[in-house]
């Protein structure tokens, strides 16, 4: 318990620690995964507490901060619980969770897009007043610019530029070629730079 | 070679990723040395990337782990309810189908013998295939 608590204190400032934990932390996590797999609820809870902020980080960037992102982050851990038996440890658990998170968010965003298309087809379009609200500061503007990207471009930006995964790993996590990652990154950055001209 | 603004932007992004080949790097460096506008664009990309890296981490609400456990528990019970609902639907459908075909829900109707008159039963026995005949 103490070990995990100390890890949690470190977590805030260093994302790389999440992706590439040191050997001791790696061993601790492996043992918690093993125990959770055997049905140890306490070990599973420690894993949830250790990874909840990084997972929420991804869902909040993908869906926008709020209850929906939190809901999706919880769903990620439910999926983890259901698939613990299949987790072979080829990637770190953090990477595995980020992969689940980003793909669940992509599915959700695409489902929303389909629903929106139906609504637009069935009736007159209702203006989205939230999207027209001017951002209050840089952080707000950045988040708004991120949310204006297409879901696929947003996923690439979140994994590569926010979470710091290499291009190759980002491509693997999303199941797309590296070249596609690079081109989506370029287009997304161009859009964001245009959107944030005032702040850059 | 004439390149448009978007293509130059693409090269700048590739440069940040370390994905430029030798020829592209040479081309970009030459253009950067000659164009203040391109240098500004490069600076903007670098600022954007730095800002994205420094975005604050969202903190989960209190009771996050408990809510995950509650979800797992309810998901575990959910399939039981789904199985029970499916069984109930099958039972009702079977009942309706039997009622529709025989006009009754008595035990004979479920067994499929309700609509059989005595003379029909005899005919059935006489005409049915008998391996010992």
UniProtKB/TrEMBL annotation, chain A:
Coiled coil regions in record: none
* Example GO molecular function: DNA binding
By its UniProt entry, which InterPro entries does this protein fall under?
RNA_pol_sigma-70-like, RNA_pol_sigma-70_dom, RNA_pol_sigma70_r2, RNA_pol_sigma70_r4_t2, RNA_pol_sigma_r2, RNA_pol_sigma_r3/r4-like, WH-like_DNA-bd_sf
| Stretches assigned to the RNA polymerase sigma-70 region domain | 47-115
Biological process according to GO: DNA-templated transcription initiation
Which CDD domains does UniProt cross-reference here? Answer: Sigma70_r4
Q: Which SUPFAM superfamilies match?
A: Sigma2 domain of RNA polymerase sigma factors, Sigma3 and sigma4 domains of RNA polymerase sigma factors
Where would I find the RNA polymerase sigma factor 70 region 4 type domain in this sequence?
140-191
Keyword terms, alphabetized: DNA-binding, Sigma factor, Transcription, Transcription regulation
Protein family per UniProt = Belongs to the sigma-70 factor family. ECF subfamily.
What is the name attached to this protein's record?
A: RNA polymerase sigma factor
> Which source organism does the UniProt entry give?
Phaeodactylibacter luteus
